[in-house]
């Protein structure tokens, strides 16, 4: 792109170089002031001239800077790196997960590796998409082509970098979220870990673990790994430290408790319906509702800070 811009500018500057000097008379036409160039010719100039009636003004576009050395000086053309970055920057104003921006320089059709810096006007609540300059919205993915974004992975008021991938989402195309940028803290993942052990026997029902989380975060995923094939259902209760202990009335899992069903593992990357917001020093109780065959299970819950 830079080479194309510079080539076009070179052509324009060569045209500038053809402007006759005062006293010149191209083609033998004496109609110009003082016997110079005709005033009606379509000259390329850097500023309007009252003595010309058909000039074209050459101005620097986005990503290009002119330095004018004045009369008999040099006109220097150079790439403006700061402006080049701005051509890929925009702010979404949709107010929802369907982010859309109009970049200062239309990027054209989506292509592999195309990048965009987008400032989000709202945090995502689950899956999201991105559209540039009115083109078809494409899913936003992260990690290993995962479109089920955790809540608040895209932060309100923050600028995020995206790269286009034509083969993502079964070749439907998607924007890969590379990360938040700017004067801001980068989002990180913390985990809540616990092991429920039946000491060689099938895990029994009832309360099995109590934990506290000393930092605010947003629950985003849960993984369970069992020692053998079987089934288990675990409810999660949460309460503020001052209201400890939580009870079944404080469940946060809605109708989607932690579940392994006739398998030795399970993973939930959306936690649909859960109460996901966690305040510093919130307390959790993990209650086994039912279990068959499984004698030990490890639970890992991810929390975005």
Characterization of the model:
- The chain has 305 residues and is mostly beta strands.
- The protein has three domains: 2-80, no CATH class; 87-181, no CATH class; 189-304, Jelly Rolls (Sandwich).
- 9% of the residues lie in helices and 40% in strands.
- The chain is built from three helices and 18 strands.
- It has helices at 2-17, 81-86, 168-171; strands spanning 44-45, 56-57, 64-68, 75-79, 89-91, 98-101, 115-119, 129-132, 138-141, 159-165, 174-181, 189-197, 206-213, 217-239, 258-268, 277-278, 282-292, 296-304.
- The strands form four sheets. Strands 5-7-10-11-9-8-6 form a seven-stranded mixed beta sheet.
- Strand 3 and strand 4 (75-79) form a beta hairpin.
- The longest helix has 16 residues, at 2-17.
- It starts with a helix and ends with a strand.
């Amino acid at each position: 792109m830079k080479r194309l811009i510079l080539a076009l500018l070179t052509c324009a500057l060569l045209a500038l170089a053809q402007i006759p000097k005062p006293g010149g008379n191209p083609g033998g036409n004496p109609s110009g002031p003082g016997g110079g160039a005709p005033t009606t010719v379509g000259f390329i100039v850097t500023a309007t001239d009252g003595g010309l009636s058909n000039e074209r003004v050459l101005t620097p576009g986005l990503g290009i800077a002119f330095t004018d050395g004045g009369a008999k000086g040099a006109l220097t053309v150079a790439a403006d790196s700061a402006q080049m970055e701005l051509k890929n920057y925009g702010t979404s104003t949709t107010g929802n997960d369907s982010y859309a921006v109009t970049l200062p320089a239309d990027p054209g059709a989506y292509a592999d590796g195309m990048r965009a810096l987008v400032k989000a006007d709202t945090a995502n609540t689950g899956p999201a998409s991105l559209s540039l300059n009115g083109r078809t919205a494409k899913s936003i993915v992260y990690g290993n082509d995962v479109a089920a974004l955790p809540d608040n992975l895209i932060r309100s008021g923050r600028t995020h970098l995206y790269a286009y991938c034509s083969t993502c989402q079964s070749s439907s195309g998607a924007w890969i979220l590379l990360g938040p940028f700017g004067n801001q803290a980068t989002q990180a993942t913390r985990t809540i870990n616990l092991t429920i052990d039946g000491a060689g026997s099938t895990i029994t029902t009832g309360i099995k673990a109590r934990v506290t989380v000393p930092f605010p975060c947003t629950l985003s995923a849960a993984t369970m790994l069992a020692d053998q094939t079987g089934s288990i259902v675990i409810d999660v209760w949460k309460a503020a430290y001052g209201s400890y202990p939580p009870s079944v009335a404080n469940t946060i899992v809605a109708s989607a408790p932690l579940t392994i069903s006739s398998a030795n593992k399970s993973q939930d990357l959306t936690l649909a319906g859960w109460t996901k917001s966690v305040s510093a020093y919130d307390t959790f109780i993990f209650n086994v509702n039912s279990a068959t065959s499984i004698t030990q299970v490890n639970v890992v819950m991810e929390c975005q800070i």
